[in-house]
Amino acid sequence: MTNHGKTGRILVTGAAGFLGSHLCDALLAEGHSVVGVDNFSTGKPANLAHLKRESRFELVEHDICNPFDFGTVAFVFNFASPASPVDYMRLGIETLRVGSEGTKNALEIARKYHAGFLHASTSECYGDPTVHPQPESYWGHVNPIGPRSVYDEAKRFSEALVMAYHRYHHVNTRLVRIFNTYGPRLQSSDGRVISNLMTQALHGEDLTIYGDGTQTRSFCYVSDEIDGILRLSRSSEHLPVNIGNPDEWTILECARQILDVTGSSSKIRFEPLPQDDPVQRQPNIAKAKRLLGWEPKIDLRTGLQLCLDYFRQSVERGERATPAISPPQSRASVTQQTSARH
Length: 342
Ligand code: NAD
Ligand code: UDP
Known about the structure:
- The chain is an alpha/beta fold.
- It is built from eleven helices and 13 strands.
- It folds into two domains: about 200 residues, NAD(P)-binding Rossmann-like Domain (Rossmann fold, 3-Layer(aba) Sandwich); about 80 residues, UDP-galactose 4-epimerase, domain 1 (Alpha-Beta Complex).
- The strands form four sheets. The chain has a seven-stranded parallel β-sheet with strand order 3-2-1-4-5-6-11, with helices on both faces. A two-stranded parallel ribbon has the order 7-10. Strands 8-13 form a two-stranded parallel ribbon.
- Helix 1 crosses helix 6 and helix 3 packs parallel to helix 4.
- The protein binds nicotinamide-adenine-dinucleotide (NAD) and uridine-5'-diphosphate.
């Protein structure tokens, strides 16, 4: 039983992205009508090409930082935002805007139509965590002015905004803290670790490991993640819920799994660790288990096998991995360097 109604019309922002497109598929499979909104800054219409003839699906090109209204909806899933470090460091101001103005515009739609609302938040709210694994009660350890802050602080602000719309305007909101998720439609060129290493392995290029590879992440396969998100959307929980796979891997172990699954003889190449790269990350999912009866089913090796064909096809189209980027240098550090020279 859904609280957004079996035939409710549902709005998905960021619909042409990796998670948004899978969410649209799942909602349509449940019998809903879906209006997807996207400005195609990091997603692409090709992710939704298979829905071209689906009469219950509409796709609108729009930047949600500008106010919008595409008609009555029963539920809003707010997924619009660059998500990969390479994307959000390239699109720093846009990322801060979509977490603030864009999220406010999406909340206004939920308020206007008395619709439910679920916001895609992130494990990045915990920053470089000093509590491990991370429960929802942990307030996090974020550098508010570092290169990752355009994303981390945008998401922390958007959580505050969602809670404020809940408290002040009584909007029926949910907050999911998503941990590293992978699967088909993850852009090969988005620079995330699974995208880069799968693409490099299949091209026979060196696998780039940043730092010494001992930093950890916990990887969730997309179908598990979407299942958890849908369960949360049907619940009445307004406080944040972690949805992620608690199976924790070092990046080096993850690279070895990828070499194994792809059968590649690529070598490993160590490169500098980007600034503020979190040392460890693992969700505590006790709350999701208790409230939603959810836990992931697909382990890393199975998940990598499930997306092998997708990455093979991307590589055949000539798509390539993307190296880490640094955001533009701050004037403060330029001044410091200048004064150090004089
Ligand atoms: P993605 O980049 O594939 O998808 C994001 C989509 O949002 C893209 O289609 C992009 O074009 C669209 N978008 C960005 N700014 C927009 C704007 N101003 N107006 C309209 N559309 C806009 O990323 P994803 O991995 O699918 O992530 C989706 C959401 O989930 C994001 O909010 C992200 O922060 C969150 N999330 C993802 C992960 C993960 O591991 N994939 C982890 C934590 C949180
Ligand atoms: N990483 C890496 N090689 C790459 C891409 C990423 O070693 O080619 C590392 C990155 O430094 C981080 C981890 O893999 O420690 C996960 O990076 P990703 O960009 O996927 O997501 P994050 O969790 O950092 O947002």
